Protein 1
Amino acid sequence: MNLLQTIEITLTIPTKLQLTASMGSVMQGILMENIDTQYAAYLHHQSMQPYSQYCLFDKKSHLLKWRISVLKTEASKEILLPLMNLSGPIHIRNKHTYFSIKGKKLLRDTTYEKLALQYLTDNQPCIDKTLTYTFLTPTAFKRNNQYVVYPEMPLIIASLLHRWNAFADITSLNHDDILPLLLKYPLWTRNYELFMQPFSLERTKIPAFQGSLSFSSGKHEMAGKILCLLSNFSAYSGIGIKTAIGMGAVEIRID
């Protein structure tokens, strides 16, 4: 069965260096430098990447938390294992500096089967729950070749369904059946605090948003279960576009 795992590498950075979420694009380069060249070439030709990664910068401690998640077992062996074996300072060429490794840990660990058993059985009620999505890094979608910078539920659900069905080796969630089911029942917005936050990529800025969104899981039992399942999956997969370079990182709370 395919693994879902997240590791966190804590890096100490020079005190005068200020970083943003866009550092994720730099760290993707570090990732590629430290994995097998043949696997890196394989990833280069994939339309959907079996991993996501992003950076969180703690200004007080001046630490960078680099989180990398994988969506299949092969990626765990080819990506997470080499990164957990990293030693010595990491050379950040575009900043002309080095980051020291302070610590490494396995942050999250499950499988598609465990998630499905947890949420698609009668043991986990998901009626009228409040789901809070906190978008940790700039997030955006694309529709008709245009950027969408608001967390529309059809786009969130479609993004998660697409990734789940691409990598889950057990329960497939038929997009044509599930998406209409989830959108058929009202998902009332309960609170939101959103703001525009562009993501810098080379010489361009991708329009995007950050912040939090809370909404109801509704009163339909199966729709609520699938929504809770996909929401928990999002912590590994990310949401929206360019999750492999640091966009679309999300944390979920279900109350």
Note: The CA atoms of residues 85 and 104 lie 9 Å apart.
Protein 2
Amino acid sequence: MDRLSTLLSHFGVNAGTFHSGSFCGLGLHEDETVGHVHLLQAGELLLKPGNEREIRIVEPSLIFFPRPFTHRMSADEAMGAQLVCATLTFDGGSGNALAAALPDYLVLKLTEVPDMGNTLEWLFREAFDGHCGRMAVMDRLFELLVILLLRHLISSRVQQPGMMAGLADPRLSRALTLMHEQPAKAWRVADLATAANQSRAGFAEQFRRVVGQSPADYLVSWRISLAQKRLREGRPIALIAQEVGYESPSALARAFRRKTGLSPREWKVDS
């Protein structure tokens, strides 16, 4: 089972490059509907995320905002900042299960993510060499970069409770991936515990501690996230109910309202 590919098959990532080169002045990102990836290739940069204190970045770094999040970047000419930037969206919107499982933002030195080295080298070469088709290539490389970052986060095993922490756990990840791959199946805790090679009680306790929800609550959350994505795509609710494990549209609507406070129809209008 490939825990990351399964996730990305549901919630793929799309990038759009919008800046490459010198950066001098002020860049403010607020009231936007997209996430962002910024790569500081050289020089220094000041970053102010939301209402938090300003961060001075003095080494080549990756700045990752998986969801819309107000932030300000600034640099003067003496700082020599060289930036490559892209917008970022996940299929299913910024509230989908994958995007919601990630932190508000990350700042990582490029030396901390050595597996990205070849991709970063290629991306910077495209950014600064002026080849034809460079924007299309850079968009794809940014998407690859995000996938490599997700792989890095899972392998690092240093996360707050949630999906990513569960996927980083060798035993829990088997159970999570089964739910991700087969959301319509009526999973019992005993079945998931067997997949994780744990006792039922031990599995349920560890799942709640690491993921922050019971297995049953997580399955409902995953199903509703999939239903939201399919609603955005214009799929009929009767088909969606069948695909995500509910015996009828009304059963899906009840679960949907318990999780979101809205009916599927109301949510689609507001989203």
Note: The CA atoms of residues 114 and 152 lie 10 Å apart.
Protein 3
Amino acid sequence: MNKGKLIIFSAPSGAGKTTIVQHLLKKVPSLSFSISATTREQRRDEVDGKDYYFISKSDFLHKIAQKEFVEFEEVYSGTFYGTLRSEIQRIWAGGKHVIFDIDVEGGLHLKKKYGDNALAIFVDPPSLEILIKRLTSRGTDAPEKLAERIKKADKELQYADRFDVVLKNHDLKTACAEAEKLVADFLKD
């Protein structure tokens, strides 16, 4: 497959996009996860090359200069995330469609670049208050990083209408079932 389709899941941090994407990867064998590159510190439960490609800021900037990214963002101050062109090519070469778990601006960049070949889904959390509770209960961020994530989440909620579909994640089981249907309908075309 030289060119498969792209399924883009975007949302503020804590909205449930990763859980929904993991569910879809178990249910839809024709999907393969696009591993993003990042300059952020690796968390103790994360695996390099599985959860992210963890690279130094200088390597990341070098890859930008070499045009190796399809999209990239400085998502948080000093912390970059991006999608390597080689990652999409790797998945398509394997005969699969690409599924992304990506920040809101990155998702919009991918949709703009790939147009009708991409389905962009915004995962909408029940409320900003519940999102804040989820982020706080994770215990993975220092207070200043947590504040930065909350501020960014509030801004990102305003982008929902720019996506092809807004998937309400008020009940995870329902959201996963709806995501399965959206993806199946998109892939059959």
Note: The domain at 6-188 is CATH 3.40.50.300 (Rossmann fold).
Protein 4
Amino acid sequence: MTQGKLLEGSKVNHGSTAETTPPEPPSYEEATADASPCYTGAYTDDGELLTQFNWDDRNIRRVFARKVYSILMIQLLVTLAIVALCVFCEPVKAFVHANPGWYWASYAVFLVTYLTICCCSAPRRKFPWNIILLALFTLSFSYMTGMLSSFYNTKSVLLCLGITVLVCLSVTLLSFFTKIDLTSCHGLLAVLSVTVFICGLMLAFVLPLGLVPWLHALYGVLGAILFTMFLAFDLQMVMGNRRYTISPEEYIFATLNIYVDIIYIFSFLLQLFGSQD
């Protein structure tokens, strides 16, 4: 009798199990809720700068962009102040012209800090070394830009400064609202970089001899176009939602790239439109 009751109970339980529908599988949002949406695992190396981006987590990208633009504004203000001193203050201009050794010292600091930030992932991610390196880089590059600007008259510097501001604003709006993925144009940027490099080498040998006077203007045009394209490329890398995006941990590297693009645009425009004293 007890065995019969057990058999009947097992039949009832088996029947209820068979009639119960299996639970539905979790959705993609539920399955990835606990994972970090900015890293898909496509790049596992710690030194890799690029990462695939997922727009499910917009807060990380928004904070990253805000941090980049805040540091960039400070850099540009420092550079603008040093350029203004070298252009408008006559004692500072005379000191800069009388001591060219400071330019080469600034160039050495610029080169060392630039290579350190670009090639070494540990210093550019570790506070406060990343801020110290970026500050040294900004001061040295600002002094070099100020010395270059001091050889041009005031109207030329102001004109090129205004053109640079308009170009940067236009490129920023284009990068934000265009559907064209400029991060996939790295091949074109590489070809144009080689062209500008060869043109610069030719200019270094031809300019002292007074041959091909239009080569200087061509070098300025190509350089301005190249770094305008680099600016659009780097801005879309910061924004995300493109084929290649930069990791939110690399805010120092991202700021460095955009800052260099803007300063080089100004320098090439100064060579193209500026008139020397």
Note: The longest strand covers residues 50-51.
